[in-house]
Design brief:
homotetramer; 12 helices; globular; Rossmann fold; alpha/beta; 2 domains; nine-stranded mixed beta sheet; Dihydrodipicolinate Reductase, domain 2; six-stranded parallel beta sheet; about 25% strand
């Protein structure tokens, strides 16, 4: 069976999805998907041609409804996620949706409910960083007990795209237009990684900060509503503890999704800015060892047989796409699906509203 | 005037004080201090000779009372700090005391009160890491506004000296014998650095963990009472926010006193395991720049005129000793004195007891 | 016009070419090439389908002759390069050939001569590392005089794929089967980088080493003929000097193509194992600054608008493919073409035979 | 017995020797030396007092002749080394001399001859970097066969103290006044390290460069005579090969004495700018492991019982001083003595004159 694909959105992640759909069979084998339709308000024929899609359309609803489409990639602004994902689910399509799920927890809940009502359709959220070979190696080391019992997690995800105070005000900085701020853009990625490594969150206490309270607009200074940064303490259901930090105003940081796990028998350290390195210390080692990614990691091997030759950001997405195709084909389930994604949303919304008070994440346990 | 010195204790920090007293005039000029008496239960004549002290004694009280002694270095276990420091103050001596001040907040309060009653005598707590050239350079960059307004602090101090669960139980793991655990050993250092860079703490929320609840003893497993690790969120009086973490069970970490400050106009990053590097990013820079310590930093220049030639841990203590001597001689005051040390104690004790609830540090403001 | 492509070879670099052909228009726009035929002894229909080629064949000559083919990608063992490249040139096709050009200098010379006789056909050698965004940024910094006049080059390219002495003997370790050893596999890449940054080589002195003289084979130990490592001193035509080293037996090195340039006004440092970092020091800077790749570099921007998000090894090849297509379309010439490739071959063959004596590279000047 | 010390010179290395003499017994125990006399043209009484010397003198010959002096530290400009060392030897004193030995090979030969005629007197050259704990650990790993048979050495020692072309001309840039340039200042250190790790040099080929041919002087531009940088290829007597590079005009480098050894079974990597890190890879390891210096290394333990706490440049000299005292007391011989130092001189002078032609170092074998 050849999978028919609609892709909605042609920005940063739209192009990234396109490259993934184009190369997934080149990397992993199998039948290349049929790139049926590229949907964008501008109906970009040239992009459709360059990206190998059969046609372009300005009408995303038509794209979703296209009977030749089996799966819909949604890479549009967050405020459009719910309507598009729900339309796709109702049309019987599988859904590959960029994170975060939606602007509000209520929206995310509704989407998860609808997905639960369509159990035969696969949903997958685009948490890229779960697919890097180094992360997968780390997850395997934790799962295999190589570092013993995880005791502590320390994680940050910092960038500086909003650090410049002269950056103009935009609707992305409002609750209604942009939902959460750094937590929605960056923090949810860190939660996805944290939960994958450490298991469910039982309780958290968080603080947020708006570092640049107003920004210039044609009508004069306007208030920024969503957080520039957030900090949290975490109690995991396992009994482990963690610290969590994210910022969109951390000068000089570009993709610093950096974490470490202290286990009873070893420590792992990772930084996405050096995404091909995993640092491992096991009890008895003389220090930390730098593991370069290589073909010992199966999803690296699909791209290159030579170690140390550098996996790239976009290739993470090809792996994610492979997982989606496999799940659609009845193979191993992939995640985070909408149910797991809702858990991530609950955690970041709890962080956004904690204001220094502990919040219990009972639901986290149920979903885990 | 030649300063007469008594040194109590001959362990890790005792030897470190001895090397500082021996070399302070070699590095910085002036009259070398007179090393009057070395006090230790074993009355180690050989050490006194090797370290250049005129005599050894088993009687620390005699050492404190010696009329030829002007200043007393106290490097004994924490439970002895209060009695020795108070005796020295009452004998009219200046006091150089290793951190933490005492086992309990009450003890630290009493010591600070007594020091306040002896305003002509200098007190100095041994917070080594405040004296490294890289730290001093960082503090100057913050003070000079090079990174703009400090917005966020992220700090950890991790070691692994207690990570091995087969390490036997010791009295240091009890409240009565050892006071706080990782917070008393390591966390207080991180607080000293944090407060020096960010100013007073207004509020904190913390959690602690005992990773190895019991340890072997001749009488069978015994309970560990004080924390193996602690995490905290910080609200500074300035409005900035911070995260704080310390652990004595972080496998592979040896002296990872690592922090970063996000300012409105730049970022600083430091790790004591590479104590000769300070990483600086200013708005507009293409990335982070690695500043190696060098003779541009005056306290480096006193030791070596060549940049990149490596300042060492012990040399921090020589700088601290110079600061002490200068203050005793009527020059610039040095710190943290007992008053500032009490603020540090309040913060770590607040962390130890927060249990996930916010604690206001009103006193911090007064002392700052 | 849609470019018709034949790809010969389905190994490491064959797959890499396939991914480049698949994604070049997705990344850079334009009309995707028509993937006409995939040639391999096994006539792999499944790979042709997965990689999007119209058909597979076991007959590379038929693939080259296919009238629907405009350009031939050659990714087969080095001993086949000459015959295939010459056939393609004679058939009027453009040629994209993996390095090194051939087993012998005579073969390379013949290939360059034939290419010169077909001036309307583009030839391009697969020197991947010339296309990384960090390298391109470095080349621009040198060209723009940011580091002043280049004085010295220090370069290594080390891997460890032959370090294990129990690795069996293979025909690749003979002159007839494998040509040069580390110089042919790795050293030529380093030469490509060195010449691009420093200009022509005037003279060199080199030494080579066979670290593992014999290797196991079914017939007993057999002699390794080609070098495991090589070292050289370089005099550039510019007057600058350089050191050069390559090894296939450097334990722990995976893709350490590491170089630095000392200029009269600054220094650049790069290591392919961290291919997204370029370290830059200019006179007056406090230290070296780590430049992460990002969308300021146009060929990065084609893949990702977010800095620090990690360019990958395979994406270098997409850039190379774009250069090839542009040159075929009459745009900027691309290189190294066969003439420039011959210069690289002359350099590595001179290194292979220098045996500690100076060798003048007069021809290098002519070709530069 | 208490050793009586004369120190000649009060500059960079003079102060470093003073700190070593002051602290050697504090670190290692034993009787502190008696600091008899500090000799310098300015007869600096204040320095003598601060550094703990009994007296100062402007007459170095008187200092050498002082019957209370057993050992003479010579830290003056290189042109004075021969006269002072010979006077000290003739006066029956042990000699601790900073590198390089002398301005000319003839001088060095004469000094070695005289030392050989005084076999009861210890001579030691100040090759600091042989004493760092990380280097000693590396040497032990090589000696113990942990990395198998050493196959290749790659070493550089770069600084940038002469990189600025506006730096005025000085007598240090002449052969008569300064002897060799970068080779004499820096390269000889790298040779000391290389020979200690790899054994004798059999043959070398080298090139040198004067990057800044003239420099400003009150009389107008004057020619620089000695080399700003040098490169060499090395054949070791063992059959191993090496590359060697040194520069005093490498912008941004401060103390980059960086080397690596490829062994048949592992690799070591070190950089003096991070002097507390040794990187080790053994066959089978997943990557390179960062060994931080710590008390497992005995000479670290003498200074600090806590790993990762940072050994400093000056502490290397305390270790060197301990080795000298031990040898004087009849314990283990220390080195490089004048005979071994002559070998180092022969190597750097061979490099200075090779001009791209191989030079055989027969004498190296005899001395090794």
């Amino acid at each position: 069976m050849t999978l028919g694909v609609a892709l909605i959105g042609t920005g940063f992640m739209g192009k990234c999805h396109a490259m993934a759909w184009r190369n997934v069979a080149t990397a992993f084998g199998g039948t290349p998907p049929r790139l049926q339709v590229l949907a964008d308000a501008a109906a970009p024929d040239d992009l459709a041609r360059a990206w190998g899609f059969a046609r372009a359309t300005a009408d995303w609803q038509a794209a979703v409804a296209d009977p030749g489409v089996d799966v819909v990639s949604i890479t549009t602004p967050n405020g459009l996620h719910r309507a598009m994902a729900e339309a796709a689910l109702r049309a019987g399509k599988h859904v590959w949706l960029e994170k975060p799920m939606a602007l509000t927890l209520a929206d995310a809940q509704a989407m998860a409910d609808l997905a639960a009502a369509h159990p035969g359709q696969v949903t997958l959220l685009g948490y890229n960083y779960l697919r890097s070979p180094a992360f997968q190696a780390a997850r395997a080391l934790v799962a295999d007990g190589v570092i013993g019992q995880p005791l502590a997690f320390r994680g940050v995800y910092d960038e500086d795209y909003s650090a410049d105070p002269t950056l103009p005000w935009s609707w992305r900085m409002t609750h209604q237009g942009g939902g959460l701020g750094a937590l929605g853009d960056l923090g949810c990625h860190l939660v996805s990684v944290m939960v994958a490594l450490m298991g469910p969150v039982a309780e958290l206490t968080a603080m947020t900060q708006i570092a640049v309270p107003t920004r210039p607009s044609p009508e004069g200074p306007r208030a920024v509503e969503n957080e520039d940064s957030a900090l949290a303490l975490i109690r995991f259901a396992s009994g482990a503890q963690g610290s969590f930090a994210t910022s969109r105003v951390a000068r000089g940081r570009k993709c610093r999704l950096q974490w470490e796990i202290h286990g009873s028998n070893g420590t792992l350290v990772f930084d996405q800015e050096n995404m091909n390195e995993l640092w491992v210390h096991r009890a008895g080692d003389a220090g930390f060892t730098r593991h370069l990614t290589g073909p010992d990691q199966p999803d690296f091997a699909a791209f290159c047989p030579a170690p140390g030759h550098g996996f790239g950001f976009n290739e993470q997405k090809v792996v994610e796409c492979r997982d989606l195709i496999r799940a659609i084909g009845g193979g191993a389930p992939c995640g985070p699906d909408f149910a797991a994604g809702l858990t991530i949303e609950r955690i970041i919304h709890a962080m956004a509203t904690s204001n220094g008070r502990p919040v219990t994440l009972e639901a986290a346990h149920e979903d885990a």
